[in-house]
Amino acid sequence: MANVSILNATGAAIDAVRTEVAAGPRGKRPKKVLSGRNIMVYGTLGLAALYYLLPLYVMVVTSLKGMPEVRLGNIFSPPMEITFEPWVKAWAQACTGLNCDGLSRGFWNSVRILVPSVIVSIAVASVSGYALANWRFKGSELFFSVLIIGAFIPYQVMIYPLVIILREIGIYGSLTGLVIVHTIFGMPILTLLFRNYFAGLPEELFKAARIDGAGFWQIYGRIMLPMSLPIFVVAIIIQVTGIWNDFLFGVVFTRPDTYPMTVQLNNIVNSVQGVKEYNVNMAATLLTGAVPLIVYFVSGRLFVRGIAAGAVKG
Amino acid sequence: MTDLSNSVSIRDLSLSFGAVTVLQNLDLDIKDGEFLVLLGSSGCGKSTLLNCIAGLLEPTDGQIFIKDKNVTWEEPKDRGIGMVFQSYALYPQMTVEKNLSFGLRVAGMPKEEIAKRIARASNILQIEPLLQRKPAALSGGQRQRVAIGRALVRDVDVFLFDEPLSNLDAKLRSELRVEIKRLHQSLKNTMIYVTHDQIEALTLADRIAIMKSGVIQQLDDPITIYNRPKNKFVAGFIGSPSMNFLTGELADEGGRTVFRTNGTSFSLAGYEATETLPPGRKVVLGVRPEHIKVDGDLAGEEAHDAIVDIEEPMGADNLIWLKLAGHTISVRIGGARRYAVGAKVRLGFDMTMASLFDAETEDRI
Q1: Interface residue of A207, A211, A216 to substitute, partner B, most B CBs within 10 Å
Q2: Which ipTM score applies to this complex?
Q3: What is chain A's percent helix, strand, coil content, to nearest 5?
Q4: In a shared domain, residues A159 and A194
Q5: Number of domains observed in the structure of chain A
Q6: Is residue A99 in a domain?
Q7: Given an 8 Å threshold on Cβ–Cβ distance, is A211 in contact with B81?
Q8: pLDDT tens profile A47-82
Q9: What angle do CA B237, B242, B231 make, to 5 degrees?
Q10: Are A44 and A125 part of one and the same domain?
Q11: CATH classification of the domain holding A128
Q12: How much is the pLDDT for A18?
């Protein structure tokens, strides 16, 4: 028993020595919350956020005011009396040209343009990106270079020839024509995106699938596609926002009754007759911008992941 | 099919990417059931050769036969081969079971047959508890086992391994090495195994093909490769610590041929030369560290004085670096024998195990 107590005593002594040794700085270095660095970083971030959020705030606030209140001119003050009438008017009653059924017509036109354009362009671009990355053929590098150059040519140069081509085919002015135009112009950037992503996937997976006997489409559908969700999300976001926000092609390639939402918005906001209804204009603008905004919010994290994945290799 | 028939034959195979020649007029015959290791440093063309056999790369010229059938223009799936990759290359979105069955499902095999084959393969590789897991939930060793299983279920004639153990840590590597050897003994398939690891090559192979710049330097069983290297490259590549090379020339001393370097002469008694040894010929003498006798091991043969330079104890062995006739040479002795730095020792070379190379051609003489 005596031995045990001696052992315990020495154990305690060792412990004591250990605590003594540990008396200096230890573990993580404490960080000051209000350091100069933190103030700089958060201050700059806060200012930037304010700069971008203020216009949005003004728009939301104005769209909820009645016209008498808008005329007071206090654009930063919150509405004294909240009214949704401007939103209803913008959606269903605002007049553009001969039609007085608001933005709803443009919205559905935009949807009818958007859905097929996005699906077709992504389907074509992902397959060509996959072919360029994994099934090198004679001249595939040249083909790819030509495609990339296509991404740098300004759209405006091609509008007139395109109008003539579509007229000759007989689909000028129809939504089909606009869908084709959007698909073509989405091709360079999307193909580049998909090629780089597929080239970044381990080559051995592709080889293993070939040894397993899978062909071009089976490897695409059963191996590559299920691994490519992030890059598809990126492509969808790029295409949805790009096509939804497009104004130029919409105004050139459609007729007034098939105008997309952006063109209609312009016609509402820029109409010169009568009183300028700022609250309705703000509501109409917010309605038009809602779709890309929602897309960003829903898929933000996937978007960042996909961008990173597509950008690193290639 | 007799035991002596060739499983894989390569005839005059060449491959170049533009101006870069990777493989050059390569001929290789691999017997049925043989375990052949392609060994070489990175960029020597060993993986390229394997990819050509698999049909993943098209050769510029030459022919490939598998089971006496010319498969040069065949698709990978029609060649009767299975391949295991360094990065495992498991399909990440599929479970182990789906990974194993992918090739069979693509081929449209009936479900019962697929189930039977998966049961057999997972039993052999002991991966039954893992069948419903995704590859991300497996350890490196388990992944590699699944990758082997994917070749196993397809019931192929030839297994191709592309550095399958290089991504694993040392302990796992030696475990799986034994497992692959056991697998080969029970399956008796032809296996072609690419590696840069000489231990894997020596332990696994029936025959080793050592490659350099797209050319096979020597194709022999491991013992011959180790003890009778055909040239200086093979001698230096195989063996760790590597062979000692002493540059010098042949000389005649009282009627017997000796090797002379920096004024010191070494008797060549016991060396089996394949060519004549004329005096004056510039040669390189190669001796492995374990074929040098030290002090007490000597049994009356010719001996020389050397000074201990550095000692590297490695547990089972003790490697000592010595200064001898202006050269630094390494000697492997038992782990229990220790020498102080600067100590004087007596050395004797075992010439029956030594190698002589022509200084110019670097070929064995």
Answers
A1: A211
A2: 0.84
A3: 75, 0, 25
A4: yes
A5: 2
A6: no
A7: yes
A8: 999 999 999 999 999 999 888 888 888 888 888 888
A9: 45
A10: no
A11: 1.10.3720.10
A12: 57
